[in-house]
Amino acid sequence: MSEKTTFTVNDMTCNHCVGTVRGALERALPGSTVEIDLASHEVRFTGDRAKGADAIREAGYTPETA
User: pTM score > 0.90 for this model?
Assistant: First the structure.
């Protein structure tokens, strides 16, 4: 598909946050692969990096370059 992007999202602190971020990315980037590791606060996804970052921000979280 496309290159995988990784962001650190330190304000993602629980499984509800994980679900919110995953849902936002899946809506913004249909067909993308989304992987989230709550313990390390890492969010990895395929697709447009800028769209993914915007989706995370719109969901109320702060993506930082990992």
Answer: yes
